[in-house]
Write a structure and sequence with these properties.
- Two copies of one chain form a homodimer.
- The longest helix of chain A is centred in the middle third of the chain and has 16 residues.
- By secondary structure, chain A is α/β, with parallel strands linked by helices.
- Chain A has two domains: 138 residues, Peroxisomal Thiolase, Chain A, domain 1 (3-Layer(aba) Sandwich), CATH 3.40.47; 236 residues, Thiolase/Chalcone synthase (Peroxisomal Thiolase, Chain A, domain 1, 3-Layer(aba) Sandwich).
- In chain A, 64% of the residues are buried.
- In chain A, helix 1 crosses helix 2, helix 3 crosses helix 13 and helix 6 packs across helix 10.
- In chain A, helix 2 links the parallel strand 2 and strand 3.
- Chain A is globular and about 55 Å long.
- The interface between A and B is large, with 61 and 60 residues.
């Protein structure tokens, strides 16, 4: 086990609509869970990284605001962003700074408060993550982009809309067991198939929804980790990549090639392969995204992703459990908070604290968090 | 000389109003100067960090857009921000990732295109960098914040408005010699003193102005640096800190204490002190900011900053040359681009490529870049 940088604390708020608190309070709630039982004082914390996406609330440059509220000044604080994968970009940067010896203990907080905007305005803001000269004015929203990949996938492999829906059946099953998920209703295949079409073939229940929330991951050097916790979870591999923003010049429309790049880097760094992963969190912003993630992470061969969920291999007692916390589909997707929430689930699984969704004997976990339409994937492998 | 991470290339666009090109083209121009003569292909570049501040132009999450335009996909790309010090935060993160062994060569590009907004709208966006619940609705703009520090400073030390103006006299002298500066007019003490009051005691020519521009810094590990250039400039020390966003709870109103923290860290890491610095770039968003920087960086004792510029010690042939490229006051201040422009000036000075503003025998240089009203300082020390 590579013992260089560890996660020593994780926390998150409930993911909700209309949280009714300020962003500083939202971040504090996630931080409070992460520091609980750690005997860590603000003075011990060397830096704060804030992960978020701008324009959903009025506050610009929130890092100092949150640093002050948590009592972390004068330690450095700054902001990172790669839209929906901001949280794991924050973890990747924190990992690097600790491994470099620049800092020993870093708090990473991801947050988003999306309910200050109407759904329509939020979709507009989100759309401007695509090229505002050549793409977004023509309607390249997130559902539209993922629907194109879904159409191509169904066409190429003869997969069905029911197979996509089965991802949501699984994730709604686990969402009902997650007290912090926004959508706790167990959904049947029929309910999903009969839900309104958003962008064919994706229906309402194939899509995750906006939310308010925050998550927190505290990382530390090996020496500090051992001082503060008896249950360090080690960062074994970290990979990232970036796809062309313009979908039409990418090499595939049935795979997110950048996830393959990121996974390759992370597996190589960890000295592990897909067969070594005991539990995974993947970025299921849409049902198709989870299917593509199965294949791009090497859990299934191209075209064989749907079979994995049909065979219940990705349930918590299956061969490769995926999103057994409900995923984005059931938790909700407060953009900057999502990556940290994934890391929290993996860390709790590896610590054996996952309750009735615990994957027996989980020793190695993986989080795949993606910004945009397959644009900014991060893959991080953890072990204990 | 600590040979771990080096700057191997620097570039910037001219800083202008209404640049008339897209942000991708703006970034390309800075990148082109930085790679000139390096024999570096896109495949050799391991990551791209984009430093900017959101909301000045419509494009969100610009990292992938710029990565694609420069041909750098699928290498990871992401975004960092600490408002006006985003560029040096980008350099600090790049330094850490290279020192950690995560990447070998990183391109950092900072940019801002501010002319898409009216000056009024830009001031509003900028104001929302202060606390949008308790401060910015009451008018805590950047000039207002710095004017409060200026008033307190003049009162405490009996300094004069003429002394502040002498910073601009110096910087306008050097701005006239910088082909990339937006404001090339040499200003007399009288012109500065007679310019319109913006927020007393700060007058128009005590203030820097919005601009469009981009800058680029390419960093590399020691082995790669030596492969690509015969003139590596080494990163010797890196420090950062964060002040409370709420000015009223800070410990001083005549010093930016966070700059003192950041400088302490950077000096300690470099094993150097203020007396070892041959040339410096400081964040002169207002004339008072340069005076405070002299003192907070240890170039002058508290209250003795004004004497430094009066005695011409901060001219290029003085004891401690500061902002001999014209500073923000003469170059203009395209937020995300400013830090990289400072680094470019220091690197060119240390390489002996600074033309008629060359500081004779410069071996150690320092850049101090600050976001907000003293909120996010970065201090980086370079050597050759």
């Amino acid at each position: 086990m590579k013992e260089e940088v560890a996660v020593i604390g994780v926390g998150q708020t409930a993911f909700t609509r209309n949280c009714g608190v300020s962003i500083r309070e939202l971040c504090f709630e996630a931080y409070r869970e992460a520091v609980e039982g750690l005997d860590l004082s603000p003075k011990d914390i060397d830096a704060l990284i804030i992960a978020s996406a701008p324009e959903y609330d009025k506050q610009r440059t929130p890092a100092a605001l949150i640093s002050e509220y948590l009592g972390l000044t004068p330690s450095p604080a700054f902001y990172v962003e790669s839209v929906c994968s901001a949280g794991t970009t924050g973890v990747r940067v924190a990992y690097s700074m600790i491994k470099a010896g620049v800092h020993d203990i870093i708090v990473m907080i991801g947050f988003q408060k999306m309910s200050e905007l109407s759904s329509r305005d939020a979709a507009e803001v989100m759309g401007r993550g695509d090229d505002t000269m050549f793409s977004s004015p023509f309607g390249t929203t997130m559902p539209a982009g993922h629907a194109l990949y879904a159409q191509a996938y169904l066409h190429k492999y003869g997969a069905t809309e029911e197979q996509l829906a089965k991802v949501r059946v699984k994730n709604s099953h686990y969402g009902a067991l997650n007290p912090k998920a926004n959508y706790k209703k167990v959904l049947s295949l029929e309910e999903i198939m009969n839900s309104d079409v958003i962008c064919s073939p994706l229906k309402k229940f194939d899509c995750c929804a906006n939310a308010d929330g925050a998550s927190c991951v505290i990382l530390a050097s090996a020496a500090k980790a051992k001082k503060y916790t008896s249950k360090p979870v080690w960062v074994l591999g970290v990979g990232a990549a970036t796809a062309e923003l313009n979908w039409s010049v990418r090499g595939s429309n049935t795979s997110f090639l950048a996830t393959r790049e990121a996974a390759k880097t992370a597996y190589e760094m960890a000295g592990l392969g897909p067969e070594d992963i005991n539990v995974a969190e993947v970025h299921d912003c849409f049902t198709i995204s989870e299917i593509l993630a199965y294949e791009d992470l090497g859990f299934a061969k191209p075209g064989e992703g749907p079979k994995l969920v049909e065979d219940k291999a990705t349930y918590h007692d299956g061969k490769i459990p995926v999103n057994v916390d409900g995923g984005l589909l059931s938790k909700g997707h407060p953009i900057g908070a999502t990556g940290g929430s994934q890391v929290r689930t993996i860390v709790k699984q590896l610590r054996g604290e996952a309750g009735e969704t615990q994957v027996a004997g989980a020793k190695v976990g993986l989080a795949q968090n993606v910004g945009g339409v397959g644009t900014y994937p991060n893959v991080i492998i953890f072990g204990r």
